[in-house]
Amino acid sequence: MSTISSITAQEILDSRGNPTVRVHLELDNGVLVSSSVPSGASTGQNEAVELRDGDKTRFGGKGVLQAVANVNETIAPRLLGLDPVRQAEIDGIMLELDGTRNKAKLGANAILGVSMAAARAASEDAGLPLYAYLGGPGATRLPVPMMNILNGGKHAANSVDFQEFMVMPIGAPTFAEALRYGAETFHTLARLLAKKGHATSVGDEGGFAPNLSRNEDACELITEAIEAAGYKPGRDIAIALDPASTSFFEDGAYNLSHSGKGRKSSDEMIEMYQRWIDTYPIVSIEDGLAEEDWQGFARQTELQGDRIQIVGDDIFVTNPTFIRRGIKENSANAVLIKLNQIGTVTETMRAVQLCREAGWRFVISHRSGETEDTFMADFAVAMSGGQIKTGSLCRSERIAKYNRLLEIERDLGKGAEFRSPFVG
Asked: Is 250 a catalytic residue?
């Protein structure tokens, strides 16, 4: 049995140039690992607390020195001497040390960094890749990627209200081919945008951020790019949306201010999505309605859930309590799973298990403020949900996850599985 001999944290920068937490964990046999914590821009109100210093003289108040200190001074002393394989116990001790409902005392960024590092150390000590350690011998399924190739909302300063327009290579035979399908479509879209006189600068997650007159123009452009790249829309490559509707929900209505399309009710939003579903090869809509619009989510699921995947992100925040409510009220048929929304590996796995028990799909997801850490790529394979959302086909913090999945597919060899949840 190997035991934890050292845990230290430091402040590093994420992909937006804002501070985040990196944790270094060492075992008594010399195994040394590190884990870095991502950060979101459009966050649900019930997410676990990302602890920031608030000192305006450093990083505009976004420093994480207190979270770092919480790892070094509070968490580390309690975990020294423990076997890293005891993941649930380690995570439970940190929850007990925090003592709050939403990790507001120590910070989810402090707790998650340690939780991920413990899992990684245990896998290293066992001589197993992380996906095999977390998922067992059945962890052989590579996920279909949701590739964010056109940005709006909080992820880009443009005229598009909706945050993410993604492509999913649902007809690809392997993950490597899926990545190629997406990359070719991405570069084709760049040429198409340039030809039409649009900017080809990218947003936080690497997607293009053109100014468009209508939100649905994004679907038009992507469909055109899929065809121009030589693929069949809806057969080879489909479209997935993340409007992030909470970000433009004001006073009981959806204010499409970026595009100047005015205010819409919940029912009007659902009707709009129905038109889009009828027109474009859309297979998934995430956060099509706001996190407090539980009734709207249920109506959308009732009306459209037999045709597309209705994904809850801000409404569920990877929290078993909200996922159970959603299952009871038929609020969706899929959940976006983000490790830092709940704050420990153990709780994240419990959220996934709830989805499995309900027959719901789930999507392992990154955040808009990412690092080069590839934990979530292994986690996606370990959970065998068949879907991952980790950004566009540029920016190295996104590509790191894709490249890790390529490595996993290579390592699994003939045992690797790749099948779309939307085909067959």
From this structure: no
Choosing from 124, 164, 205, 291, the catalytic residue is 205
Task: Identify the helix (H) or strand (E) that includes residue 131.
Answer: helix 130-135
Q: Which amino acid is at 76?
A: A
Half-sphere exposure of 193 (CA within 13 A, CB side): 23
- As a dihedral over the C-alpha atoms of residue 141, residue 421, residue 369, residue 96, rounded to 10 degrees, the angle is -70
Question: What are all long-range contacts of 212-216, with beta carbons under 8 Å and residues at least 24 apart?
Answer: 212/158, 212/159, 212/160, 212/259, 213/159, 213/259, 214/259, 214/261, 215/152, 215/160, 215/161, 215/162, 215/256, 215/259, 215/261, 216/276, 216/279, 216/280
**Residue range 144-415 in CATH 2.30.30.240:** no
Q: Where are the domains of the chain?
A: 4-127, 144-415
**What confidence score (pLDDT) does residue 24 get?**
98
Query: Domain spanning 4-127 has what CATH number?
Result: 3.30.390.10
Q: What is the mean pLDDT of residues 45-57?
A: 95
d(CA 17, CA 60): 12
Of these residues, 62, 338, 389, 401, which one is catalytic?
Answer: 338
Q: Tell me the pLDDT tens digit for each residue of 64-110.
A: 999 999 999 999 999 999 999 999 999 999 999 999 999 999 999 99
Q: Is 264 a catalytic residue?
A: no
